[in-house]
Amino acid sequence: MARHGWGGRPPANEEEARQRIIDATAGLIDRHGVAKTTLSDVAAELGVTRQTVYRHLGSISEIVSVVAARGAEDFVDRMVSHLEGSRSPADAVVEGILFCLRTVPNDPRLNLLLQLGDTATFSRAATSPVMLGYGSAMLRRFPVDWADAGVSDDDLDGLAEMIMRLLISLLDSSTEVPRPEDEVRALLERWLVPALTRS
User: Fold this and answer.
1) Is residue 11 part of a domain?
2) pLDDT in tens, 54-88
3) Which residues form the HTH tetR-type domain (predicted)?
4) N or C of the chain: less Cβ packing under 10 Å?
């Protein structure tokens, strides 16, 4: 590892170098937004060259994707904690969707997913096999008994896709006024809850 740059404290190994680049990028995004964060900015923040940053993590879009993914992991932890005490899988899904609608637009790390291109790009990314796999893994962490609602482990993949598609629509920033939460809750309780309630 080179001894110059890095604010006089060079990283001990590759993992530490990557983590410091990610942390610096996250800090810049929090302060200036993703549109005003460049590879040069990250390099300057760390006191290294652009080539050094590129060697460890690649392009700024790759680094921003890592920042967004780590923000999503923290978000899932917060959501699971929020859902503790849910009465049923249906209740957890409704509260989880409402939690997303409250949290995602105001969270700079999660909002990266919405800022990385236009709505169509976000829609494709959010329903990619990787994101749907992530969504079903998130549902498996919900503190509920899915079998009690007649939802099998295999069914969680389809449920994750439906939730992601619904969230894309509800988070669409092109609408002038976001729908009030009580209206969204009523919509979910009328059409989604019956599908998650054993008759």
Assistant:
1) yes
2) 999 888 888 888 887 787 788 889 999 999 999 89
3) 15-75
4) C
Q: Is 42 helix (H, G, I), strand (E, B) or coil?
A: helix
| Domain-embedded: residue 63 | no
Average pLDDT over residues 89-115: 83
Res. 160: pLDDT tops 70: yes
pLDDT in tens, 15-34: 999 999 999 999 998 888 87
Chain centre to alpha carbon of residue 55:
26
Q: What's the distance, CA 58 to chain centroid?
A: 21
What Å distances lie between residue 20 and 9, 23, 109, 121, 132, CA to CA? Answer: 11, 5, 16, 29, 29
Q: Which residue in the block uniquely carries the two structure tokens 């999660």?
A: 110
Q: Show the DSSP H helices in the chain as ranges.
A: 14-32, 39-46, 50-57, 60-83, 89-103, 108-115, 119-126, 129-141, 155-170, 181-191
Burial class (CB in 10 A: 0-12, 13-18, 19+), 85: exposed
1 lies in a domain? no
Exposed/middle/buried for residue 9 (C-beta within 10 Å: 0-12, 13-18, 19+): exposed
Which range marks the domain in which residue 49 is found? 6-58
- Are residues 100 and 118 located together in one domain of the fold? yes
